[in-house]
Amino acid sequence: MTANSLEPRAHFFMLAAVAAIRAGLIVIAVAVSLRQILKYPHLPPRARATVSNLMLVVMTGLLGLVPQPPSAYAAEIVAFSAVGLTIMIACRREIIEHHFKAGRPAVELIIGLPGASRP
Predict the structure, then answer these.
(1) pTM, rounded to two decimals
(2) 25: which residues sit within 8 A by CB, 6+ positions away?
(3) How far is CA 39 from CA 4, 33, 43, 53, 54, in A?
(4) Model confidence over 74-100: pLDDT tens digits?
(5) DSSP at 5
(6) How many Å apart are CA 23 and CA 53, to the nearest integer?
(7) Which of 5, 67, 73, 105 yields a CA-CA distance of 20 to 30 A from 38?
(8) Angle, to 10 degrees, between the axis of helix 10-32 and the axis of helix 43-63?
(9) For residues 84 and 101, is the Cβ–Cβ distance under 8 A?
């Protein structure tokens, strides 16, 4: 493997690096303010969804660095995206349940008004 063999895939590495940094910062932010986040039942699923989305970007970026046929890369992306979609659906379901248990109007949920972060 020569030094220039990864050059065509350098943008994948940058994508993975940026997403990994962002995911790490979000994990640290969640860890620092965990008590505040746990006070609001709709925030833990949002944090889980955010970190899982960023980890999906990290994984697809890292898989882009592996020398493999495009069909194998496409299959891996589809598989990881299916897992990510499953996590997102579960998190969204939790957020919707907490929203309606709190008796808040559906319009807040649909358009994401600034008042959506109230307890």
Answers:
(1) 0.71
(2) none
(3) 51, 10, 8, 23, 24
(4) 899 999 999 999 998 898 888 888 888
(5) T
(6) 9
(7) 105
(8) 160
(9) no
Positive/negative CA dihedral, 60, 64, 66, 71: positive
Distance set, CA 63 to CA 76, 104, 112 (Å): 8, 42, 34
Rounded to 5 degrees, what angle do the CA atoms 99, 104, 107 make? 95
Q: How far apart are CA 61 and CA 32, in angstroms?
A: 28
**Among residues of the chain, what percentage have pLDDT more than 90?**
11
CA dist., res. 92 & res. 98, Å (int): 10
Domain ranges of the chain: 7-117
Give the sign of the dihedral formed by CA 28, CA 29, CA 35, CA 38. Answer: negative
